[in-house]
From TrEMBL:
Probable methyltransferase required to silence rDNA. One of its GO terms (molecular function) is methyltransferase activity. Its main location: nucleus. Its EC number is 2.1.1.-. One of its GO terms (biological process) is rRNA processing. InterPro entries: RRP8, RRP8_N, SAM-dependent_MTases_sf. Belongs to the methyltransferase superfamily. RRP8 family. It comes from Prymnesium parvum. One of its GO terms (cellular component) is nucleolus. Pfam families: Methyltransf_8. This is Ribosomal RNA-processing protein 8. Residues 35-46 have a biased composition (Low complexity). PANTHER family: RIBOSOMAL RNA-PROCESSING PROTEIN 8 (PTHR12787).
Length: 300
């Protein structure tokens, strides 16, 4: 069943706040050079030299006072803290609500519905991504950076698939060739598609990455597609929000049956887990898998 959000979202999208304007930077103040210090006066205790006959000793004239030191430069004026207007606060709340709504929708529907919705109304995709970007900017660690660090130690000749790549950060950071896929191409590096059906030949990838992108109630299809795309012994890297797993051991067992043997499990981060699997020879048919809970963002 498809849901028409046109009325709700188009009205909301029309009210998106304009990008914040950066305050003009004041030109640096030129500092005046301090006047050179006057030459040291002769010591008061030194005896005056003898005068030639008939000459009167003149009263010593007071030394000219040194020019006053320039006043210290005033400290740079603190940027005035702008209070957000009621309208700006309402717009921010509306944008937050819109992000959470689309986010939850993506986690609870089959991906073909999301693909249809975003194809018809790409502005909804951008609204979702604006929200995701502002959420992830607050995280102390971003899984994409962890995965990029890991790829830094892998062969540069590897070919990698980044499934649900967002704005294709991985392709920008790493030296390997990266194929980036998402529902909407928001960058020229991104190929728009549903990651349940990726336009690449079988066994063409050395690594497949899902960074927080196992969204969609049919996410098992994404994993089966990853299995098709990986060469034998290719690597599957998954970063997921820890709270999405009801029972992570059971989940790992199911992936094992599907053809992915766990090789690394990193739960050191309090928010997300990083799992690494190697593609085995198993091609077990598995149409069902334990569902992952949707990742719901709290209202702030
Ligand atoms: C939470 S964001 C993560 C983005 C990026 N991987 C990161 O870690 O910054 C999830 C991304 O997966 C994408 N996505 C979800 N389901 C998808 C599907 N079926 N096909 C393609 N992309 C999908 C979303 O559009 C979104 O860009």
């Amino acid at each position: 069943m498809s849901v028409d959000f046109t009325g709700y979202f188009l009205a909301a999208a029309a009210r998106r706040p304009p990008p914040p304007q950066s305050a003009p930077t004041p030109a640096p103040k030129k500092r005046r050079r301090q006047a050179a210090a006057p030459a040291a006066a002769p010591a008061a205790s030194a005896a005056p030299p003898p005068l030639p006959a008939g000459k009167k000793r003149q009263k010593p004239r007071p030394l000219a006072a040194p020019p006053p030191a320039p006043p210290p430069a005033p400290p740079p004026a603190a940027a005035p803290r702008r209070k957000r207007s009621v309208q700006q606060r309402l717009e921010a709340q509306l944008a937050g609500g819109r992000f959470r709504f689309i986010n939850e929708w993506l986690y609870t529907r089959p991906s073909r519905e999301a693909a249809r919705l975003f194809a018809a109304q790409p502005e909804l995709y951008h609204a979702y991504h604006d929200g995701f970007r502002s959420q992830s900017a607050r995280w102390p660690v971003n899984p994409v950076d962890r995965i990029a660090g890991w790829l830094g130690g892998r062969p540069s000749v590897w070919v990698v698939g980044d499934m649900g790549c967002g704005d294709a950060q991985l392709a920008r950071i790493v030296r390997q060739e990266v194929h980036s896929f998402d529902l909407v191409a928001c960058d020229e590096r991104v190929v728009a598609c549903d990651i349940a059906h990726v336009p690449l030949p079988s066994a063409s990838l050395d690594a497949v990455v899902f960074s927080l992108s196992l969204m969609g109630s049919n996410y098992v299809e994404f994993l089966l597609e990853a299995r098709r795309l990986l060469r034998p012994k290719g690597v599957l890297k998954v970063a997921e929000v820890a709270s999405r797993f009801e029972d992570i051991d059971e989940w790992i067992q199911q992936l094992d049956a599907m053809g992915f043997r766990l090789t690394e499990r990193d739960e050191s981060n309090s928010h997300f887990v990083l799992l690494e699997f190697v593609r085995t020879s198993s091609n077990a048919v598995l149409n069902q898998i334990v569902p992952l809970k949707p990742c719901i963002y709290k209202r702030r």
